Amino acid sequence: MLKRYLLAPGPTPVPPEALLAMAMPIIHHRSPDFLPVMDSAKKGLQWLCQTKNDVLILCSTGTGGMVGAVNNFFSPGDKALVINGGNFGERWTKICKAYNLGVEEIKIDWGYAVKPEDVENALKKDPSIKGVFVQASETSTGVYHDIQALASIVKKYDGTILVVDAISALVAHDLKMDAWGIDVLIGGSQKGLMLPPGLAFVGVSEKAWAFAEKATSPKFYFNFKKERENLAKNQTNFTSPVTLIIGLNECLKIVQAEGLENAFARHARLAHATREAVKALGLEMFTKESPSNSVTAINAPAGLDGQEIYKNLRVKYGITTAGGQGHVKGKIFRIAHLGYAGTFDVITAVAGIEMVLKGMGHPIKLGSGVAVAQELLMA
Ligand SMILES: *Cc1c(COP(=O)(O)O)cnc(C)c1O
Predict the structure, then answer these.
(1) 161-165 and 184-188 as β-strands: parallel, antiparallel, unpaired?
(2) CA of 259: how far to CAs of 171, 219, 297, in Å?
(3) Backbone angles phi, psi at 168, to 5 degrees
(4) Least enclosed by CB within 10 Å: which of 46, 145, 210, 250?
């Protein structure tokens, strides 16, 4: 037997309370049994997204929420400004193009964060840009983009909304939807929310709802106006993913018991300890600035294949992490500390990295990274 550890940036481990709740018999989504379940999920998500706005619950992965954000708020020919600093930024461009938006990109070298003044300048130059699309945490590079700064810029333009993919950032980073002025905030179930894959969440501001009134892109499955009407009745437009929503309530209870600020602080602490431990092994961060609290991206040491490190962690020690995506495949590997994660997840990851690197012939003093993590995470 090989005991398994899931330390990937999605899916993430699911707490036993949620697993148990999801093992209960299915209830019918149009029966009165379901109404309080949906009501509680709806309110919990508003709390999590720090908003009074509607937070829609969609039965899809996170990407479905991204697609819905494009086809519900924009029309063919509308101008989109995409902040593309990684694989998921690239996904914004692909979705916008699929719906015939005109895309202008701010390309950022992988590992770096967007400079808010570049967005400011782009909007000044072309105020007809209707949407600014960004990731909060760019999972492929381990970078956090400064959403507060971006929101303060976009807020000044009545004809522009800020669309934030916070799929890997929710629960790990403070994202004040209302206070900062985020227009569309997208989350997913299998990341910080500690659930299986299958739910997307979309918070929508009043400014964005006004865009929805004018948007002519085709829509059927993801129809946010219909979802909004249904949400008001504690329903979803089509069959509700009842099991996942029951699980969602359990996970929200866990985050509520911890407190939002404490959840952010826990993720920041785990991320910091991971970085310091790995640096103590002589490894370099792939992320050059503004590291995410959700995932740590590490350069493979010279001469070693990042995919081999990732594969050895899984095959030899049962630790599932992530390799590199796109053009950095083979050059990096990534460790998540997201959702149902604590001290010994970091220690497991660091110990595993030490053992794998030593096994690959890299000079490592066993325990030297672990000791740093222990020092930083001691209660
Ligand atoms: C995981 C993730 C997504 C969505 O991926 P799905 O496979 O559709 O759930 C989107 N953006 C970011 C930043 C992610 O980390």
Answers:
(1) parallel
(2) 10, 37, 27
(3) -100, 5
(4) 210
Tell me which fold the domain 16-257 belongs to. Answer: Aspartate Aminotransferase; domain 2 (3.40.640)
Tens digit of each residue's pLDDT (9 = 90 or more) over 89-144: 999 999 999 999 999 999 999 999 999 999 999 999 999 999 999 999 999 999 99
Q: Residue 227 has which token pair? A: 């979802």
For 289, phi then psi, to 5°, come to: -155, 160
What 8-state DSSP symbol labels residue 322? B
Residue from 12, 88, 222, 295 to probe ligand 1 pocket by mutation (most atoms less than 8 Å from CB): 88
pTM of the model: 0.98
pLDDT value for 224: 98
Residue 113 CA to ligand 1 centre (angstroms): 18
Contact indicator for 187, 170 with CB cutoff of 8 Å: yes
Helix (H, G, I), strand (E, B) or coil at 95: helix
| Architecture of domain 5-10+260-377 in this structure | Alpha-Beta Complex (3.90)
Q: Are 34 and 240 in contact (CB under 8 A)?
A: yes
pLDDT, averaged across the chain? 98
Q: Where are the domains of the chain?
A: 5-10+260-377, 16-257
251-281 residue pLDDT tens = 999 999 999 999 999 999 999 999 999 999 9
